[in-house]
Specification:
- This is Putative ABC transport system ATP-binding protein.
- GO terms for molecular function: ATP binding; ATP hydrolysis activity; transmembrane transporter activity.
- It comes from Lachnospira multipara.
- The protein has seven helices and ten strands.
- By secondary structure, the chain is of the alpha/beta class.
- The strands form two sheets. The protein has a six-stranded mixed sheet, with helices on both faces. A four-stranded antiparallel sheet has the order 2-1-4-5, covered by helices on one side.
- The longest helix has 18 residues.
- The structure holds adenosine-5'-diphosphate (2 copies).
- The site of one adenosine-5'-diphosphate has 6 residues, from helix 2.
- One adenosine-5'-diphosphate binds next to strand 1, strand 2 and helix 1.
Length: about 230
């Protein structure tokens, strides 16, 4: 059995009388420890997939299996526990708390988590040990994204979900962030899923799932993902 499986997943949003088919029978699998890129144009359904996988929303029909559990059957309480303990989120615009320091931002994320990692070790792992007392406004965009990655990793999640993690960064800084995510995936055996509309990023995925109009258009395995040094 695969670590993650989407089996014939549909998501239909209702807005008044209008139905929007965001996912129309999506199927794919992801292995444990895989670095997966979900690519596609704006409106293709990428965020919908990430929201369902992260337990932030529920499918209309279909099955979603994560680590042997059918999360598509979970009630809200179970979904909250799942989201809190099993999933780390990284966003395009970092979403740090501005009046907390780097360390406090990471610490906050670990507070209600079952089995968090050591805060200072995690900050060191993203290369920010000299920045622990700084506030977000005192560090660069790339450093803020590193804090966001540390915050997500400190929860000791099974899956790291990244929504356009380099979208607000310049090319070189973005490359460094992708490298950090890739190395983290391989060294810590965390499954990483990155959504992007940037095809250059796709070349880095062990697996690239292309979505179009709510359906999987293609799934490509890269034997030798493009190196990002
Ligand atoms: P992507 O992330 O690839 O840009 P999304 O998953 O955000 O795509 O959106 C897929 C489709 O679902 C789009 O047509 C979008 O407008 C629609 N959609 C997304 N979220 C909602 C929502 N909360 N309510 C209504 N329609 C939505
Ligand atoms: P709390 O545990 O404080 O009640 P939640 O259960 O709502 O918070 O969220 C648990 C985790 O899911 C947190 O790490 C939070 O950052 C993330 N999360 C919750 N809602 C969203 C959302 N709409 N978008 C992105 N991440 C979210």
């Amino acid at each position: 059995m695969s670590f993650i499986e989407f089996r014939n997943v549909w998501k239909i949003y209702r807005m008044g009388n209008v139905k929007i088919k965001a996912l129309t029978g999506t199927n794919f699998t992801i292995d444990e420890g895989e670095f997966v890129v979900i690519a596609g144009a704006s409106g293709a359904g990428k965020s919908t997939i990430l929201n369902l996988l992260g337990g932030m929303d529920s499918q209309t029909t279909g099955k979603i299996i994560v680590d042997g559990k059918e999360i598509s059957e979970y009630n809200n309480k179970k979904l909250t526990t799942y989201r809190r303990n099993d999933i780390g989120f990284v966003f395009q615009f970092y979403n740090l708390v501005q009046n907390l320091t780097v360390r406090e931002n990471v610490e906050l994320a670990t507070q209600i988590v079952k089995d968090p990692l050591d805060i200072d070790e995690t900050i060191k792992a993203v290369g920010l040990e000299d920045r622990i007392s700084n506030f977000p406004s005192q560090i660069s965009g790339g450093e803020q994204q590193r804090v966001a990655i540390a915050r997500a990793l400190a929860k000791n999640p099974k899956i790291l979900l990244c929504d356009e993690p380099t979208g607000a960064l310049d090319y070189n800084t973005g490359k460094q962030i992708l490298k950090l995510l890739y190395d983290t995936c391989k060294e810590k055996k965390v499954t990483v899923v990155v959504i992007t509309h940037n095809l250059a990023i796709s070349a880095m995925g062990d697996k690239v799932i292309k979505v179009k109009n709510g359906a999987v258009e293609s799934i490509t395995l890269n034997e030798n993902p493009v190196s990002i040094d």
